[in-house]
Structure to design on (541 residues):
């Protein structure tokens, strides 16, 4: 979930840009490295390969210094030059990373999809694997875990082809994170164990220990507390002796969570205090937000709502612009604490803020859906109607985490006349084969989008429950390769399974919220598709 955000960002940016031209001092003062690099550039021939590589490194240094505006300016200047495809790839990728760092996830996807096309043009498998990894991290940040899982698997397959054990280990760790977040816990265990084995073989004990703690988190989610504790204890001595204070801090925090889950409040206090001491050894002035949330939950369980609310508001002040699960947990815990202490007006204000975040999240989902369609090459050039409306959300609550959290969710509806859609059946003679293929992909993409939004279930569960698509096991993981072929024109079979497509769409309509905005649109598309299907010579196949 949010437990590995820092590690994921490190993985996203861990691949080298190119051979170093600017010799970095590796000093704590990055300003010195920037000045050295700029001096080096001034002595290089303009528009030379060495000048390009040095300027690319300078852009990375600006980002490391936190000046993304200067980093982007440097990259845009490079793009204005006549660049080779490989150089375009590197510049565009750095722009994507900068957008990701600024939480501009949709913009980041646009850049990374471009690098994907450039990597394909170059026929460079290493670049393709790198781009799949970049895209997967962004989709994961957006909450589209199924797409992220597919991309990570692609990156893993490429790493296997290249016999790149390091990338295999990194990708397996990412696959474990995704599997854990979608509650495919047995798959997560397999991935983390394989990643640990590879990290150990490569002699990278730091990452091996990181993976063991990730494995302990899975056992925690499975409520197998003893297994989780044993794994953590097996790594703590080595982590402390090696000075791996970040990972040791993470381990102590997990021990505190386990103690909370077992209602051992004194033990939770002990582990939180140890985590704080360990955290103080790290040269980082940022507050550990997850530790803040756990401490607030402990205060709530002790009945000290005033102190809990101070901590929760502190966390929200740092996270209010982030549509993350961590932010949701802060809102939920704060609303619960205010409700318990009968601060109903404050609780309502918190719920309104939460509502605003959820509406923004719905807008992001709409933008992501449109981007998906564009990447499937099915959006026409004419202006698109916006079928997504904002919801006023009605707060409801239920027990969460054995009474530790009050879970608030929102439902709402704005009465609005349905969009005008031509109900007339299409004339199959006017539909080209390409039009039909576009409609198939749009029906499947929209069906999957509605299913994921209204049921909070994955494409694997759609395949299993509808009984329309085969679920395969690939490297110990569940996959729906056949269904996934229907989500893009370039992978769509020449002889599509008409009945499977139509029955899948009907299944979604019958089992999803009837008030969803796009359900009407999907029904209209199915009517058109049914007419076209009956006219197809392959309809009965």
């Amino acid at each position: 979930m949010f437990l590995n955000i820092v590690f994921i960002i490190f993985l996203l940016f861990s691949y080298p840009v190119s051979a170093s031209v600017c010799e970095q001092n590796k000093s704590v003062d990055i300003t010195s490295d920037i000045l050295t690099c700029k001096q080096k550039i001034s002595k290089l021939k303009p528009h030379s390969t060495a000048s390009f590589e040095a300027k690319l490194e300078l852009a990375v240094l600006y980002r490391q210094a936190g000046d993304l505006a200067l980093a982007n300016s440097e990259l845009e200047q490079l793009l204005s030059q006549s660049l080779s495809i490989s150089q375009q790839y590197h510049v565009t990728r750095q722009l994507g990373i900068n957008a990701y760092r600024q939480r501009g996830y949709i913009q980041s996807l646009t850049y990374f999809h471009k690098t994907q096309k450039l990597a394909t043009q170059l026929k460079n498998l290493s670049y393709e694997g790198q781009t799949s990894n970049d895209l997967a991290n962004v989709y994961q940040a957006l909450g589209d875990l199924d797409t992220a899982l597919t991309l990570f698997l692609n990156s893993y397959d490429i790493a296997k082809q290249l016999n790149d054990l390091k990338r295999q280990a990194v990708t397996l760790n990412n696959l474990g994170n995704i599997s854990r977040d979608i509650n495919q816990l047995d798959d997560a265990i397999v991935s983390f164990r394989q990643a640990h084995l590879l990290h150990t073989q490569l002699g990278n004990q730091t990452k091996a220990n990181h993976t063991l703690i990730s494995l302990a988190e899975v056992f925690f989610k499975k409520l197998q507390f003893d297994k989780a504790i044993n794994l953590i204890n097996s790594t703590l001595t080595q982590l402390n002796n090696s000075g791996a204070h970040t990972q040791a801090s993470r381990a102590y925090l997990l021990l505190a969570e386990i103690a909370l889950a077992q209602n051992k409040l004194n033990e939770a206090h002990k582990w939180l205090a140890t985590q704080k001491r360990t955290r103080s050894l790290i040269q980082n002035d940022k507050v550990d937000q997850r530790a803040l949330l756990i401490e607030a939950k402990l205060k709530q369980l002790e009945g000290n709502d005033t102190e809990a609310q101070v901590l929760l508001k502190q966390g929200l002040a740092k996270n209010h612009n982030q549509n993350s699960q961590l932010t949701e947990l802060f809102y939920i815990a704060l609303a619960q604490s205010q409700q318990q202490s009968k601060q109903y007006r404050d609780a309502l204000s918190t719920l309104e803020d939460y509502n605003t975040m959820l509406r923004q999240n719905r807008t992001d989902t709409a933008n992501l859906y449109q981007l998906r369609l564009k990447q499937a090459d099915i959006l026409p050039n004419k202006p698109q109607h916006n079928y997504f409306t904002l919801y006023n959300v009605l707060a409801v609550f239920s027990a969460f985490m054995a009474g530790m959290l009050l879970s608030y969710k929102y439902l709402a509806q704005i009465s609005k006349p349905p969009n005008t859609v031509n109900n007339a059946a299409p004339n199959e003679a006017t539909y080209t084969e390409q039009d039909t293929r576009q409609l198939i992909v749009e029906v499947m993409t929209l069906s999957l989008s509605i299913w994921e939004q209204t049921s909070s279930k994955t494409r694997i569960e759609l395949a299993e429950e509808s009984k329309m698509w085969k679920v395969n096991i690939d490297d110990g993981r569940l996959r729906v390769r056949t269904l996934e072929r229907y989500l893009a024109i370039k992978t769509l079979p020449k002889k599509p399974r008409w009945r499977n497509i139509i029955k899948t769409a009907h299944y979604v309509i019958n089992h999803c919220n009837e008030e969803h905005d796009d359900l009407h649109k999907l029904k209209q598309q199915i009517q058109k598709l049914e007419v076209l299907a009956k006219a197809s010579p392959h309809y009965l196949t």
Notes: The longest strand covers residues 394-400. The two ends are 42 Å apart (CA to CA).
